Amino acid sequence: QVQLVESGGGLVQAGGSLTLSCAASGRTFSSNVMGWFRQAPGKEREFAAAITWNTGNTYYADSVKGRFTISRDNAKNTMYLQMNRLKPEDTAVYYCAATTRYVALHRSQYDYWGQGTQVTVSS
């Protein structure tokens, strides 16, 4: 089992920045890819970004590319999502997730999930 705990959400004005963190514990060595997903009210949970734990390869949804940066600290078993130039449409609950797969861009491919952290962007 892998346990994931997100932190860093909050309220920010449009154009501002936030950094989310996801601390992993448990059988973290079994996770090859970790990702960030988000779910706005009334919408499906959607992919935002992912990172391969060993190589650091990154993947982004078109909606966040150029504004969000995903990174990880292997020594701390922690993943980050730096979010810049935030827009009201970025408002959502953000979830981190982990999978044993080597490439995973859809929520159905992830095995472990955190509880989520709310990000609200005011206009």
Write the layout of secondary structure elements.
Layout: E1 2-7, E2 10-13, E3 18-26, E4 33-39, E5 46-52, E6 58-60, E7 68-73, E8 78-83, E9 92-99, E10 112-113, E11 117-122
Parallel strand pairs: 2-11
Antiparallel strand pairs: 1-3, 3-8, 4-5, 4-9, 5-6, 7-8, 9-10, 9-11
Task: Walk me through what this model shows.
Helices cover 0% and strands 52% of the residues. The chain has strands spanning 2-7, 10-13, 18-26, 33-39, 46-52, 58-60, 68-73, 78-83, 92-99, 112-113, 117-122. Strands 2, 4, 5, 6, 9, 10 and 11 form a 7-stranded mixed β-sheet that branches. Strands 1-3-8-7 form a 4-stranded antiparallel β-sheet, with no helix packed on it.
> Overall mean pLDDT score?
95
Shape, please? globular
* Major sheet description: 7 strands, mixed
Distance between the termini: 40 Å
User: Which structural category do the helix and sheet elements fall into?
Assistant: mainly beta
Tally of DSSP helical segments: 0
